[in-house]
Amino acid sequence: MTMPLLFPICRRLFSSVAKMRNIGIIAHIDAGKTTTTERLLYYAGKINRIGDVDTGDTITDYLPQERARGVTIQSAAVSFDWQGKCRINLIDTPGHADFSFEVIRALKVLDGCVTILDAVAGVESQTEKVWKMSNGIPKICFINKMDRVGAGFSRTLKEIITRLNTRVAVINIPYFQEMENNKSNEPKFEGVIDIIDKKLLKWDNEDADQVIIKDMTEMTTSSIYNDFLKSRETLIETLSEFDEDLVEHFLNEADGDYLAVSPTVIHQSIKKLSLSNVVTPVLCGSSFRKIGVQPLLDAVASYLPSPLEARLPELNNKDLPIKRDPRQGLIINNSKNLTVALAFKVISDPVRGTMVFVRVYSGILRSGNTVFNSTMGSKFKIGKLVLMNGNVPEEINVLRAGEIGVLTGATIVGKVFTSDTIISHSIKKDGIKAFDQKKELTLQVNPLVIPPPVFSMVVEPKSLGNKEHMEASLQRLIIEDPSLHISKDFETGETLLSGMGELHLEIAGDKLLNDMAAEVSLGKMTVSFKETIDDCTAWATHDDGKGYKMSLQVCSIHKLPEKVSPTVLTELEHETWVPLRNDDNYLVVENNERYNSNGVWEPLMSYQSIINALSSSALAILQRGGKIANFPLYSCVVRVKGDWEVPIDVEKPSEVLTISKNLIMKAIRKLEKDKFSLLEPIMSVAVTVTANDLGKVSQDLTGSRNATIVSIENSLMADKDSEGSLKFQSIAEAQYFPKDTTLKMAQLKNRTFDMKHILAEAPLHGMISYNKKLRSLTQGRGEFDMEYHGMSKVNKSREEELLQKA
Questions:
Q1: What distance in Å separates the CA atoms of residue 731 and residue 534, rounded to the nearest whole number?
Q2: Which of 85, 184, 655, 800 is positioned for an S-S bond with 301, CB 3.0–4.6 A?
Q3: Annotated binding site for GTP, which residues?
Q4: d(CA 116, CA 38)
Q5: What class does CATH assign to 455-527?
Q6: pLDDT reading at 587 higher than 80
Q7: Cβ count near 732 (within 10 Å)
Q8: What is the torsional sign of CA 192, 193, 194, 199?
């Protein structure tokens, strides 16, 4: 029979929290994320025409730079319903390594992920990276591009097991039609075989919106029946290893017959094991040809968690209880009217002004309410609330627990930034006073972890009159993208813009020149070197007799008796650790002796305001750099003694800022120059080449690029250092997989799949423009990816050489 595809009405209807799905699309670049997203929106009825990446008219890639380059640069959100089964809030993320922070911030607020894999390339380097970044989040894998020559479904399945270290639950397998009139005798990918519901789904060649459904139990003589039967047996056996309820059903109700096992029971088992990250459901298709997209949507509804089933948000106060309520969603601290939301993205829209993307964890956020920014310690009023569909807003009145939406309005400008926590009352317009000062109003969702920048370039105004506009434009850039960083070279007076990669800075420069019309000159990209101190400074003290008293010192974090290095604000028994952006620097404030002795905070200035002022001072001075070449200081701790005091009647922290800045500068200034060391960024490099190119590529890495090769692996090998890699190797070898029909044709066309993976660690300065060299060495066959590994001390013999290049 032929099944017409239905297009549900695309209006936002309130559905229960149980029907919400907050999901992200993650993958290696060019695996088909945006193409898949367009098809999901089309079949859900959100759009009536499919956009194309190559022509630059997709919903989620709407920036001019994205449309010009055909690459996703920033994460984009869109919401839609799927046939009454669920309400999907989807975020499409970039695949390029330079924009990893966009993936980080999306994963922070998502409950589940769809990982797209290229069936020809298999598991790629960025696939592994985003898989690790999404650790603990339930995921579905979609093996895309099954229509391509060289597509290997089973080969990719094995790589998912061995390289991603996960068990797989194969939901469907590819169906190929033998083509009688095809001169090449290549079978054509035309559909999928549903292993659970025992159906063949075949997409019509003329109209892919029509799906022909056949019952597999009526195709027992077909050549594909054996693959279906063995795949079903493998699926049930895999699930039975972890699910006793399924075993009981199999033995008692299905009488040991794999075909008689209820689809409902299988779906329930997969959902249960997927939520606990024991197995990963895997589907296949071709998004470009619109094959397999509807089963993927069904899988999102069936196997990925609702906000009630997802991991709980990590809070700074771990003692506050969090409950799951089927009607209201999460309830924090037993307060049904407590609204908690996290700001995870800020953009400046030329028409709508500042827009802040938030995830609501508990309560109800209402337009026009006065809310409290517990990160900044200040109140502000929000304007209208909207949902975003790419760059098209849809105005709404409320955001409920579990939802993702956007704050707008002139009153939010400068009041809330990325990683800030917003507290509000679910009913009252201004109900902040109803909450406890020490509990709810100090509550924070743990902030995003921002990777350190590794490339820099000088940004100069073309004239003195352009300086003010340049500084405002740079400030707007870092508000929108906190992984960019602005610093000053205090010797030359130059302004440095730093980012996570060459493309990252190139795009930032393009935004400055074209989107913001800044009259600036951009310098050459260079490596972002750092400095660190090898010891602790002497204590610097201020006591003016006017109520201000403070003592502090600056230490190498490695000189501390116990290294804490938290990624979020952490309150220990005797002190509070505050991370300072992304240079592994920390502010440590010992518990105030006066405050802790009587439990009453007397000053008019809030404790949080003082912590914020100290953090700002430490961040600013450490960025001024060390004594070698004024590079920013790295892995340092500014420790404030617990006997500090402030006047009771002072409300603003300006004096605290001034005093603490002077003390930090004084402490660093007294340290001798030989106590400073130069640091350079080291990258983890993954290079994929053919066996024939392995020798010359390895020689180039270890020679001119000064890299250290960690390992050389075959395409199906897992990371040798990963826990349990041998176990997953043996699982992949023992498990049944259907034969890869198209690999034979690929090999006949002289395509080689004897690929080698080189894993290495290399100084970043040696990897600049490496892509051109690799393409030259491999005639365009080689690929590479790299990510920040850490900072490493430069020995004195190389220091002068690197400083000349910096």
A1: 48
A2: 85
A3: 27-34, 92-96, 144-147
A4: 14
A5: alpha beta
A6: yes
A7: 20
A8: positive
Q: Would you say domain 536-670 falls under CATH 3.30.230?
A: yes
On the question of pLDDT at 491 being above 80, the answer is no
**Under CATH, which architecture does the 15-303 domain have?**
3-Layer(aba) Sandwich (3.40)
Show binding-site residues.
27-34, 92-96, 144-147
- Name beta bridge partners: 683: 762, 788
**Phi/psi of residue 275, nearest 5 degrees:** -65, -30
Question: Is residue 442's pLDDT more than 60?
Answer: yes
* Distance between CA atoms of residues 737 and 157, nearest Å: 8
Task: Quickly list DSSP for 365-425.
Answer: EETT-EEEETTTTEEEE---EEEEETTEEEEESEEETT-EEEE-SGGGTTT--TT-EEEEE
More reliable by pLDDT, 804 or 232: 232
Read off φ and ψ for residue 167, nearest 5 degrees: -80, 150
Indicate the pTM of the whole model: 0.84
d(C-alpha 247, C-alpha 296), whole Å: 26
* pLDDT value of position 277: 97
Residue 431: what residue type? Answer: G
User: Thinking of the domain 322-442, which architecture would CATH place it in?
Assistant: Beta Barrel (2.40)
Q: Which one is predicted more confidently, 673 or 604?
A: 673
Strands (E), 258-303: 279-284
Residue 740 to residue 113: CA distance in whole angstroms: 26
Closest CA to 625 of 576, 570, 669, 572: 669
Structure tokens at 52: 């194309």
Domain residue extents for the chain: 15-303, 322-442, 455-527, 536-670
> Confidence band (pLDDT; 50, 70, 90) for 750?
very low
Neighbouring residues of 47: CB distance < 8 A, sequence distance ≥ 6:
38, 41, 59
Using one digit for the tens of pLDDT, what is the confidence trace for 521-552? Answer: 999 988 989 999 999 999 999 998 888 999 99
